[in-house]
Amino acid sequence: xxxxxxxxxxSSSSRISFLFYCLAIICLTSTTVSVSYGGNETDHLALLxxxxxxxxxxxxxxxxxxxxxxxxxxxxxxxxxxxxxxIALRLGSKGLEGSLSTHVGNLSFLRxxxxxxxxxxxxxxxxxxxxxxxRILYLNRNKFRGVIPTNLSGCSNLEDNWLDRNELAGSIxxxxxxxxxxxxxxxxxxxxxxxxxxxxxxITSMEVFSARGNPLGGSIPDTLGHWKCLxxxxxxxCNLYGSIPHSIFNLSLLVNFSLSTNHLTGSLPSEIGVxxxxxxxxxxxNNELTGVLPTSLSNCSELGLLEMxxxxxxxxxxxxxxxxxxxxxxxxxxxPDAIGNLSRLIQVYLYSxxxxxxxxxxxxxxxxLNGLNLADNRxxxxxxxxxxxxxxxTYFLELSYNNLSGSIPSxxxxxxxxxxxxxxxxxxxxxxTSSLGECIxxxxxxxxxxxxxGIIPSSLSSLGGLEILDISQNNxxxxxxQFLDNLKSLEYLxxxxxxxxxxxPVVGVFANASAFSVLGNQRLCGGLFTLELPxxxxxxxxxxxxxxxxxxxxYAPPEYGFGSEMTDHVIDVIDDDAIELQxxxxxxxxxxxxxxxxxxxxxxxxxxxxxxxxKIEIVVNELQRILHVLQNI
Length: 633
Prior knowledge:
The protein has a domain at about 560-630. About 15% of the residues lie in helices and about 20% in strands. The chain is built from seven helices and 37 strands. The strands form six sheets. It has a 20-stranded mixed beta sheet, with no helix packed on it. Strands 21-23-25-27-29-31-33-35 form an eight-stranded parallel beta sheet, with no helix packed on it. Strands 1-4-6 form a three-stranded mixed beta sheet. A hairpin with a 6-residue loop joins strand 2 (about 75-80) and strand 3. The longest helix has about 35 residues, at about 5-35. The chain is globular. The chain starts with a helix and ends with a helix. It is found in: Membrane. Its main location: membrane.
């Protein structure tokens, strides 16, 4: 028989079991909710707010940002192991468009905000200043406008602040100086003004500073000499003026130093190479610096790039380039004699420097050289064959606008991988060497404005990749070779101002009147109807042209002044004094030649395409030459 007490005890036990069961259900439910919505609702809501401001997500990187996953598992999110708080938001180069939510400032454990190379617009939220744990801020390569927030000074642990390549305006805020741990400040390619503020010198932890491409203005403050840890300094194209403070040259750890394209004056310290022994980049081109290039630069044994062109340096170059074994790119004034000692040299830019003398044959020792630009100088002599024996020369060889003479050495056949060869406006003569046909990688060949004679060599038919061929303003003759219309890649051909004869083809590049020029070839005929060249006449099995002006793209009638006699049409526009000069047959011939040359120039200056017109400096030189001839009759 069961006692009442026993029944009561059993009932109590069941109730206790039921209570434990309910408690377990509650705990399980609580755990499930925690898994779905995370360890901190503030972070969760901040991320959802971030997502809501995104208007374009072309790579669908935010599709995982939903309730099916813990937010720590969302794409681009990293959380701490202990507290499950967001410590990094990395969504760089994802094509995101929209604005940056102010609620990102609620991610109080955030250490990295990496949103570079997207299309974020609007202003940078001031709320980011609440992120006291933030160490890395990459907002560069976006479309942010407005000013740099002063509140960023609240990011007291910030080490890297990259805001470059946006549309930020205004000045660098003074609150920036409160970031005592800042190691790199990248603000280049914005619209910042107000100069480089002296208070930045208070950030003694600075290692990298880049402000290039901003219209900052002003001078370089002496206080930047406090950056004893500085390794990289880039302030090119900042409209800076004044001299470079001496304190800058005491930053012995400096590796890359760039101040190109400013208005800086003064001279460089004679001991710059001793003071900055770790230099690898030195870019001071396009300023107003004076004095000599210090010999002590020879001490910068790690120097790989040296750019000093477009300044007012003077004196003899005394740098010992034999000590600069790592140099790869040089942009200087005069060509150093010891340039051949730079065995690791890759590219040389010495254009537009009024250089005189010969091209050093020692270039042949630069076994890694792939590009050489010596254009627009006063170099004379022959092209050294040692230079043309460099198989490494694959990119460009630019020697235009000099006074080089002689023929093109046959050694040019060794440049089988060269893409661009420009020898225009020199005094090169004789025939065009057939060895050019072995430069099978040529894309551009420019021999314009020389004194070449003879025919176009048939070997050029092997240049299947040639896109541009300019052999105008020479003394070439013969027929236009048939292989030219078979060069399938040829996009532009200039044969003007030579002495070619016969029929102009109508296929290939010759099928497009805007793709070629035969201006100034008197004895051409046929071709496209739009050229208005005379029809070719059969004579003895040969096609010959009727008389026309040597100096037109198409046909020009004889009444413009060519033939055995000058016509009344030309006489109407000629100075009477010029006619009186024709007192002798010799003088008459000279006057006729001068008139022909003058009309050629006029026609060349009247071409529809501005790119095809004779350059004004050439016009002036030719007219002065003509005047000199007339004055001596």
